[in-house]
Amino acid sequence: QVQLVESGGGLVQPGGSLRLSCADSASHFSMNDMGWYRQAPGKQRELVAIITSGGTTNYADSVKGRFTISRDNAKNTVYLQMNSLKPEDTAVYYCNAKRGPLNKWGQGTLVTVSS
10 Å Cβ neighbour count for 6? Predict the structure, then answer.
């Protein structure tokens, strides 16, 4: 049932880095628009970054210049490189895949930024 699996979360100090990965077991991965979302404690889920099937990227203003989304279609995997992490980046990060009526979510991976 679950086709998107996130990994790479953990505890990191402010200013540190993490790389999240999201693997999709389904076919036609290259046709999907992929995104990373996050939900902080007590907050609504928000868009962090997207990368379209054509490779176009967009970022939330809060992470622009610090985070980089990328994809490896040969591995059916999307990545989120997170640098210069701040305490306000603390959240559960979710992977998302969209293609036409398809809209899938991973189970999330927790990122905690704290000293």
Answer: 22
Consecutive H or E run containing 93: strand 91-99
Residue type, 87: P
Cα(55)–Cα(69) distance, integer angstroms: 10
The amino acid occupying position 42 is: G
| Residues 6+ away with beta carbon under 8 Å from 70 | 51, 78, 79, 81
User: What does DSSP assign to residue 46?
Assistant: E
Among 84, 64, 81, 100, smallest CA distance to 22 is for: 81
106, HSE (Cβ side, Cα atoms, 13 Å): 28
Q: Beta 57-59 vs 4-7: how paired, if at all?
A: unpaired
Instruction: Report pLDDT digits (tens) over 5-56.
Output: 999 999 999 999 999 999 999 889 999 999 999 999 999 999 999 999 999 9
